[in-house]
């Protein structure tokens, strides 16, 4: 478990990085794929170790827990959530490898010379427990070969390796690690996403592409379930950071904007909205802290607690970013003020690891099967 001093140092490092690297050219990065991919930002994040925070120390990583990852994502989310999306996708892929017992798949990532070598692509907006993979894997004398299509794969045209779920014909889903430079692998044009646009997405087409089985054949659903439970607080932390950024900008704007002879922060209606956003931000932060504690302590009923807390924090972010636009009036829809970006980003984050409605169904299933703790 990360200590208080370490956590504070991480927050300060992340805040300095955000101030120095993420504020500049934020609007231009959000135009991707109609503007260049921000490789310079990703390279600097790699050199700081932001892509290996939760990798075990014996593999060269930071060896930190979910609280540290959540703290990093909250800070980056407040400034520009797209980098947080890259960090999350990569951390989720790493978590799946670790839960599969395939630590060897992470070897060498930390010493990688560039961000593309350190990152892993993943269809991070899918839940393989619900969406059957369209990839088919067949075992041959010289190893596994994959055919089919993998859609909406985050970082697919950036990372040199992709972690993909596939059907092997055996009951269940299996994960495979694929080299993006393999022959027979085709890359679509970059897709235009609703939010987190600088966390780029592509479709992949595979024809007789070799893949390395990660963990046991058919164990993908169980592995994803374990990774999902542990990573939900991280996604919620990214949403909470977006919410805080929206509140901060709304507060600064309403204290400066004058109308009717006074600043609009003096209007009771504006104060009511600001108060609601502040309440939502504080609630989301507390929910994330509790969800992280549940993961790290593993107390009875922790999986239910993690789901409920994390999904609520994501809902709060989506609701509050709508208020953030309203407080800026017409300026709220202008890209220069970033509130419309936060509105889009919060909904893109909400769909990580599956649509929100499906997550609620999954929460209800767990509740019916296990009941309330205590």
Query: First CA to last CA: what distance?
Result: 25 Å
Predict the CATH topology of the largest domain: Butyryl-CoA Dehydrogenase, subunit A, domain 3
CATH level 1 name of the largest domain:
Mainly Alpha
Structural domain tally: 3
Please compute the radius of gyration using only Cα atoms: 21 Å
What characteristic shape results from the CA principal axes?
globular
Largest sheet: 7 strands, mixed
Q: Determine the oligomeric state from the structure.
A: single chain
Tally of DSSP helical segments? 11
Q: What is the succession of H and E elements?
A: HHHHHHEEEEEEEHEEHHHH
Strand tally is 9
| Low-pLDDT windows of residues | none
Mean pLDDT: 94
Description:
The protein is α+β, with helices and mostly antiparallel strands. The chain folds into 3 domains: 4-115, Acyl-CoA dehydrogenase/oxidase, N-terminal domain (Butyryl-Coa Dehydrogenase, subunit A, domain 1), CATH 1.10.540.10; 121-218, Butyryl-CoA Dehydrogenase, subunit A, domain 2 (Beta Barrel), CATH 2.40.110; 221-370, Butyryl-CoA Dehydrogenase, subunit A, domain 3 (Up-down Bundle). It has 11 helices and 9 strands. Helix 4 (66-79) runs antiparallel to helix 5. The longest helix is centred in the middle third of the chain and has 37 residues, at 220-256. The two termini are 25 Å apart. The relative contact order is 0.12. The mean pLDDT is 94.
